[in-house]
Amino acid sequence: MATPLIATFGEVMLRLAPPPFERLLQSPQFLATFGGGEANVAVSLAQFSARSRFISVLPEGNPIAEGVLGELRRFGVETEHIVRAPGRMGIYFLEPGANQRPSKVFYDREHSAIALAKTGSIDWKSALAEATWFHTTGITPAISAHAAELTLEGLRAAREMGIQISCDLNYRKNLWKWGKSASEVMPELLKLVDVCIANEEDCQKAIHIHVDIDVESGSLEREKYSELAERVLATFPNLKTLAITLRESKSASHNAWSACLHTRRDFLLSRKYEITHIVDRVGAGDTFAAGLIYGLTQLGSEAEALEFAVAASCLKHSLPGDFNRFTVGEVRALMQGSGSGRVER
Questions:
Q1: Residue 189 in contact with residue 151, Cβ under 8 Å?
Q2: What is the residue-wise DSSP string for 161-196?
């Protein structure tokens, strides 16, 4: 049987960060890598030996864009349907936090190639050919009105082609500046989706669904997440499944990490991991999304898919950079209890 193809759509950026745990320009240098929510999912799926394809718009004649294409191909991600167009390469700056100092992200992505791209720029029928699953996020519609329209066009094409669709709401307050708010845009997109991934803030800010949850307390009342999930599913009857990540922030360096999954039939809670030394939390949510997609398409049950996604994203907290570099075998080892960090010889 042919390996299912999972396609993702969004922007991939140049990521610039100071040396570990320094403030921006504390030293006159940056570590340059690549990242972006939907590209992170494609890379993670490729690491799990799934067939993945990344769909995007990158600037033409740009050596940084050539560099990111090479990096994605090195991971095994299909890049043939990335369109080249006028514009620039998006950039984001990351100042990693530690202890009580939070991490900070600064975006520089106005007038990027994907922000300027209009509907019709992507041949969706060709880009989604062979795909059985299509994934996008709430990040791309936040970039510009054109990007929001292009995302909607892609979702409609996938729906017409009978492709399973997932969306990570991924609310980013620093991006929604082009005239409409997330809550004006995301509900229309979510009506085309089968599987939604979110956290409590995403639900509040992107689709205006509120439950009294205190995310700053460092301890979460899990039963309230069942109520939140039921409200989202009642508001969007098209959704088949909703996953909500649960992050208990003790500090920037110490989080507890778990998730829940509502299938309309069952409400499932995962194992909770105490992550006491976070190396880099950026990309962990994307690894969760990739792990859940992999689990729902490749594993035996929804409960196993949830546990796989949480374990994979737990491991991602130990790696610098946006991209996940763990395999299915390594994730399964953590699921089976190998979390002591002992040296393997």
A1: yes
A2: TT-EEEEE----TTT--SSS-HHHHHHHHHTT-SEE
pLDDT digits (tens, 9 = 90+) for 265-297: 999 999 999 999 999 999 999 999 999 999 999
- Which residues touch 166 (CB under 8 Å, ≥6 apart)? 133, 134, 135, 136, 193, 194, 195, 196, 197, 289, 292, 293
**Mean pLDDT across 56-62:** 97
Q: What is the DSSP letter of 222?
A: T
Integer Cα distance of 99 and 118 in angstroms:
43
Tell me the per-residue pLDDT of 305-341, one tens digit each, with 9 for 90 and over: 999 999 999 999 999 999 999 999 999 999 998 666 6
**C-alpha atoms less than 13 angstroms from C-alpha of 213 in its C-beta half-sphere:** 26
151 burial (CB, 10 Å; 0-12 / 13-18 / 19+) is buried
For 205, phi and psi rounded to 5 degrees? -90, -30
Angle between helical axes of 182-190 and 200-207 (0-180°, round to 10):
100
Distance CA 317, CA 245 (A): 14
Nearest to 313 by CA among 336, 281, 337, 345: 281
Which residues are bridge partners to 54 per DSSP? Answer: 8
**Which candidate, 174, 175, 165, places its Cα nearest to that of 143?**
175
Q: Does the pLDDT value for residue 75 go beyond 80? A: yes
Instruction: Supply 102's token pair.
Output: 């939070």
DSSP state of 23: P
Q: Please measure the distance between the N-terminal and C-terminal CA atoms of the chain and give it in whole angstroms.
A: 36
Q: Which value, in Å, is the radius of gyration of the alpha carbons in the chain?
A: 19
**How far, in Å, CA of 109 to CA of 283, rounded?**
18
Do 56 and 82 meet the contact criterion of CB atoms below 8 Å apart?
yes
